[in-house]
Amino acid sequence: MEREAFTEALLRVMEAKEHWAWSHFTRGRVRRELLHIHLEQEYATYVRDFPVLVARAYVACPIAAVRRDLIENVFEEETGRLGAGRPHPELFLEYPRGLGMDLTRFERVELLPGAAQYRAYLDECTIHGGWDVAAAVTTLFLEGTKFDRGELSEGAPKRPVPPLTEHPLVMHYGLPVEALALTRAHRSVEGGHRAAAWRSILDHVLEPVRQAAVVGAMQGALREWLRYRDDVATACGIVRERDRD
Ligand SMILES: [Fe+2]
């Protein structure tokens, strides 16, 4: 594939990373007493182990320049010493802490069926997929958003950055703004990571067979993620409009 076609295939996946139930979370329509399910499932599917998932790509990668970017990402995620100040998985727990949730629940999360399947898929990609699949699924799919085109081209819409006081958890669930340390950290450190992540894949995955493997893995991640989010929506009591009555 030419670079442009490869980029486009990957961006299509990212642009489809949007789940029908998300607006229920951002508009405060999820019942407060069920919100912990969403945070627990996010934590246990990928947030807690994100540094390890990226590290698997690092270990498998034969390209020194790419390894440097990957290990920098791992180091920041695992320690926060390049920017956030604390390990990112720990900072994530400031959300449930700030919301007054029982944090011991996060030590023994039972994954919903779709969540377990999604996690198994992430493990498969990062353990057996090769460095390129592992790096794409973690640094592009997991860390990226539907606004990733904006990371690559000037003219494309950028990911919106509303003031932290307008964060849905603050507006609808009374989270103190100080508990948004992870959101703040991501805004400051991860701009550079996004660009580096795209560069690693686009500059170094050149063989058609590997490009196809990467695109296929990204499409698979999207499929599994959508199923996982369906299960979270159901567990959080969200009913899809068209399924009502
Ligand atoms: Fe992070």
How would you describe what is shown here?
With 245 residues, the chain is mainly alpha-helical. It has one domain: Heme oxygenase-like (Heme Oxygenase, Chain A), CATH 1.20.910.10. It is 64% helix and 0% strand. The model has no long low-confidence stretch (mean pLDDT 95). Bound molecules: fe (ii) ion. Fe (ii) ion binds next to loops.
What composes the largest sheet?
none
Please report the number of helical segments. Answer: 13
Spans of at least 5 consecutive residues whose pLDDT stays below 50 are none
SSE series: HHHHHHHHHHHHH
**Which CATH architecture?**
Up-down Bundle
Envelope shape: globular
- Would you tell me the structural class of the helices and strands? mainly alpha
Assembly state here? Answer: single chain
Q: Work out the number of β strands.
A: 0
